[in-house]
Structures
1.
Amino acid sequence: MSECFCPHCKNPIYDDDALLCLYCGNSLRRNVTFLGRFKYTKPVYIAGLVIGIVILSFIFFILKH
Ligand SMILES: [Zn+2]
């Protein structure tokens, strides 16, 4: 889904879970840490969105009936 670049050879890495670069074999620890933070932050926004949609649909359900 998300594309990142190897900090050593600048080749694109398409595998989010890859720990080593497919091209030069160097560690992608920097990118993994960044993606790890991104993965920890994102569900909070998704949960907020889902809760908002549920509340909105509940309000619409009440208004319809
Ligand atoms: Zn590389």
2.
Amino acid sequence: MSTVSSLLSTKVSLSVAVFATMLGLAGCNKTEAPAEEATTETPVVEETAEAEATTPTATDGQTVTIYSSRNEQLIKPLLDQFTEETGINVELITDKTGPLMARLEAEGANTPADMLLTVDAGNLWQASQKGLLQPVQSETLDNNVPAKYRDPQGLWTGLSLRARTIFYDPSKVETNDLSTYEDLADPKWKGKLCLRTSKKVYNQSLVASMIEHLGAEKTEQIIRGWVDNLATDVFSDDTSMLEAIASGQCEVGIANSYYYGRILDENPDFPVKLFWANQGTTGTHVNVSGAGVVANSDNPEGALKLMEWLSSDKAQGLYASSDKEYPVKVGVDESDLLRSWGDFKADDINVQKFGELQTQAIQLMDKAGYK
Ligand SMILES: [Fe+2]
């Protein structure tokens, strides 16, 4: 990319400008948006033949900068392994998804970022809709990641799977009392249900999948039933929701599997059990954590190489188990803890739908009074 050198000097001065913007001083957004639009036409990055068999030779000194909303401790060992194997350095900038996307938008064509790594297909879809990602073509990703866990245009790919399912208090609830997310709207659960806030993208994606399967009208009825059955105010996070079940504030709730896994790590006798929802119907809702190549990256090849590496057998096992998630790559074993939860039928929906229906899901939850 011959433009790298000239861009660098511009980058420095513009980074100051961007910083200024973030501090709310006079905007220089005029500098970014048009350029960005132009750059989204950047040609599709072709997969490099030696993606798998790289040795730390020509790529030495190359750096891939990641904007990540993932827990740094969890992914740093993995990235260090990537550097060891490929000679490609990784610079990690960690923050919440919202600020990272705002930063990419503000930085525009002068962003130092090459890859966006985040959780939930709803977030990845948002980033692609904002033009922050560029399409890639990669046989490696096509082979390693099932199509339902990737953006059809190649704008992002899933790299690990997490299930959002039902958790219950086994001292009060029998497994045959449980079945579907929809059934939690039944009056038999009155004053027994705990939920995380509807403001969390995980719940927006769950409700989006219900709209896709059941339609908006039916889904709204169910959400109203959930709200009627709430035992407490909604929770700001899944962990405190699971602890509320354990402390007897409620009997059932919906959470992401890895939070449960993290609690069990600390307390193997945690008095809450996992139930695989919708096994007789659509299957349990699953979502991805994933990544995309930043539209204005000046090292898209390096970013693609890292995404391909993260989708490989070895990395998949490490990546998934490091955070008690499931590999997206078929045939890669999950960790012992996850295996102990038993096999389950996962919802077959393309996770891209969670983004497409996100706005409708948010409006519907609002209308139904789900805070
Ligand atoms: Fe999470």
3.
Amino acid sequence: MIEAGLIIARFLHYLATTALAGLSLFPLYAFAGAEPEVLSRWRQRWLLWIAVAALLSGLCRLAFTAANMSGSMSDLADAETVWAVVHDTGFGHVWTLRMLLAVLTIGVAARGLRSKAAAARPNWMMPFLAAILLASLAGTGHAQIEEGWPGVIHVTSNTAHLLAAGAWLGGLIPLALILHRYLGTDLNVGPKDVDRILMRFSGMGYVAVATLIGSGLVNSWFLVGSLSVLLNTPYGQILLGKLALFGGMLVLAVANRFWLVPSMRTVQPDAADELAVRSARLRNHVLGEQFLGWMVLLAVSILGTMQPAVGQ
Ligand code: HEM
């Protein structure tokens, strides 16, 4: 019961922190000029809700971690147990700072929602805070196992892993919305703008995928160590499942980049129905990529509660 609660709290926190980082980073690479007003307002509103979700899921994870450390569900809401974890453990120190950062992020998101000028100029504060909130997860969990230089390498690679995961998974959300609504009138984004946004997203995607593979291999080096334990341990088998999901995401991403995006360019300007059909197909692929990405986060939520495979 505690384990299931901890896995769900970890999953919800990964969902919220990756979405917050990707959604706040998106306008910085997707739009050459100002972000369309309607999209900016939609994004500001979602950033606030997701920042609140990051705080609430983070507090849930703290409570379940405390119950997991004390071994009894009744300690979930026991202030003394939670205080002991917060005050006397390295996890508690890092997590307290993260929750304070989450509160600050809610404040900045609320201010962004109120400010009329938010769409006109790039906002660096939100992506910066969201990136630290996501990357600081590397300060907890399995990346903390090693001491000295191996520890520094593992935490650094895990930080890169988390940021790449956030940029990709969090960036798919606004991309799906644009593909869903740009043929309507309110977004003020034309087919040429969408083509440019898709190409810039692909550019970010190349960097994210290369970073995920490189840092993922480093993580695997420290936490798996050999092919036989990858194949013959529950930890290794769940990681293989994660890699299969990742493979599915890559297949969709390559099909989007080299088949669907080019096919949208060949549609005649007067063939609006055909453009709508092809845009919907690309939107569904993007939603498929998103769903597989969230299943990757579910696999990671389980892996983080298990004994790493290395040495088994
Ligand atoms: C879409 C692709 C991927 C996403 C979204 C993703 C996401 C993540 C996340 C969020 C973590 C948890 C980090 C933490 O909390 O400290 C993680 C850990 C990990 N990832 Fe990935 N990852 C991806 C691809 C990969 C690849 C390609 C590999 C291997 C080559 C890999 C290997 C690992 C390992 C070994 C861990 C450590 C798990 C643990 O905490 O025990 N990942 N990944």
4.
Amino acid sequence: MPGRLCFIQPAMAEQTPRYKTYDSPAGGWGAAAATAKVLIEQSVVGKGSRALLSMNQPGGFKCPSCAFPDAACTKKLEFCENGAKALAHEATKFRVTRDFFAAHSVTELMEQSDYWLEMQGRLTEPMRYDAATDHYVSVSWDDAFALIGRHLRALESPDQAEFYTSGRTANETAFLYSIFVREFGTNNFPDCSNMCHEPTSRGLPHSIGVGKGTVILEDFDHAEAIFLIGHNAGTNAPRMMTPLVEARKRGIPIVAVNPMPERALIKFTEPQDIVQMATFGSSAITSEFVHIRIGGDLALLKGMMKVLFEREAAGETVLDHGFIAEHTSGFDALRADIEAQAWPDLVEAAGIDEAQIRRCAEIYIRSNATLICYGMGVTQHQRGSELVQQIANLLLLKGNFGKPGAGISPIRGHSNVQGDRTVGIDEKPSQAYLDRVRDVFGFEPPRAHGHHAVESVEAMLAGTAKVFIGLGGNFVRAVPDTERSYDAMRKLDLTVGIATKLNRGHLVHGRDALILPVVARSERIETAKGEQFVTIEDSMSNVTASRGVLDPASEHLLTETEIVCRIAMATLPESKVDWASYIDDYDLIRDKIAQVYPALYEGFAARIQAPMGFHLDIPPRRRVWATPNGKANFLVLPGLAVNAPVYDPAMLRLATVRSHDQFNTTIYSYNDRYRGVYNDRMILFMNADDIAARGLEAGAKVALETIGTDGVARRVDGLTIIDYPMSRGSVAGYYPELNPLMPLGFYDKTSGCPAAKSIPVRIVGAAD
Ligand code: SF4
């Protein structure tokens, strides 16, 4: 096959899979080596190294990977191994040109792996699908925008279009996209946060009035106890390891709750600690590792709360009664629910013993300032939104809001996923916000709620959706029920992929299809008004400027902002919005953001000049609760289950996870060194006793079948069993490869978030 072949690594399929327990510390020399390797692999050793010196630095650009905040930039190197991978893959020397598309039909490209597609390099010019030849062919920007305008204007209703946003999209672009789509007439905003922290955005406001974390980075310096629930920091927010190492050095207890004993939660070497590196030293991270059963977090949280109430009943004062009386509502209902829980049920549901639950409670009781961080292990369940509320319950009982070292911290996985929501990417916008849009832009926005990610696929399957526009991302690989999602996408009249790299989402397309290449985060934005910068909001509500430092990968690229403006101009010839003005001057966009969000962004253009940007107001940090009753609310989740029961003795709960060499659906390699997996992604991590109980052996090839309720058969074959210290009844494997097992309807009803961490499956013999 012509085109770029992996000249550093033969096609991964040829490399022999290896599985070798990894017992070195995470981070350290392994991280340094992986950083060097990716720069070499992408042939950007010089260019990439120079760019890394500007990443996450004042005046530089924000890492395009996760959303962990930057410390006060006291260090010359403010990036981690996975940030370096994201940058190297963005700055790569390799290009996907019109010749590449001439050489490869879409059908041929569909046979290639996600990894192979990623390794082909940066897109260079706009391409349109030619059904006659099954190839993408180059198209002019003007023709591309005209085509989109024609398709959108031809729709019977604006609700027949789906407008997807990836968390890489900067604030300025996301804001304009939200205004364009609303002037067009719909709130159909499926976005990547629908599949990760939507339970935080939809569940937490009922508890404390905001759908964001209340913790800032400095709180780690003041915490007296830290809980990490359902999150793998060493892979998904690696720079978080630094404050954790510092906390351990202060003797602060860290409790990690996870069905998988992730390496970085156990031992970590700080790559920038010269002594540790020189001596091959490391720090123990977790002082209490809770090997929870998948979905057992609820029982752990209720068990800890039960201990608090028992201690109170025994005459001790362990609750913050002053805080509870002044700031909360619903205390009695919560106590009644908790006191009704029986220890044997709690132990059974959690999958750990009572003693460990009591130890966790003791750590919590002794701390006057506790912060709880969490990830997908909490949100991706059928009752994920309510589970998030239980974390808030626990924190409220001891007044752990509005004081240094305390609070709740959802760790976001994509660089601006939180910012996109803040500036309007929201399928359920408030009426007050819509009023402000009307007042600022002079058009009446749609008031009916739109589609989240799963609903948009359902609309495609039902034939009510006709057009899909993807502002970044790899939608069809990120959503559940892969085969049905492919069918859904292929039913559309038009699909548009706005992206830096080629991915499968561009190959699973509508009758008409466009690929529109963009200037990347690390690249300079030059307009008629001079150099422009964008802004990013991280997991802890810091808003900082991001200025690219590299030349764009191709002279034919446009910025995301220009693309959105020109789609709007081609679709809305009578628009009330001066789209053209925003193409060249991003300060004008920030002025509009400040007008639509005065409480958050007043004086935006001036405040963003500060080297480290500014922090958005989070009222619970001031013990102010923007809830209907003006209080922080204790909310009861009856029972001990976060997923519907499944009565099948063969059932295992499957968690789909990232490998260490993966960012969302982007595959950097087939290795997952911290879990001891090399050259293989078709694996199943499984507990030794569960393996034996099924008469299987490690290394056996098996298939997984979903235990579903909708009559659709779902199966993935060719999985190698890895004997891994999973908690009993819990198995894990990689997405997107295992997304075919997740039914479209298997999601948290409050938020629409797919329950990707608790899919009920059974093992069946592998197909020959
Ligand atoms: S921690 Fe996240 S944001 Fe920071 S450099 Fe690493 S991947 Fe990028």
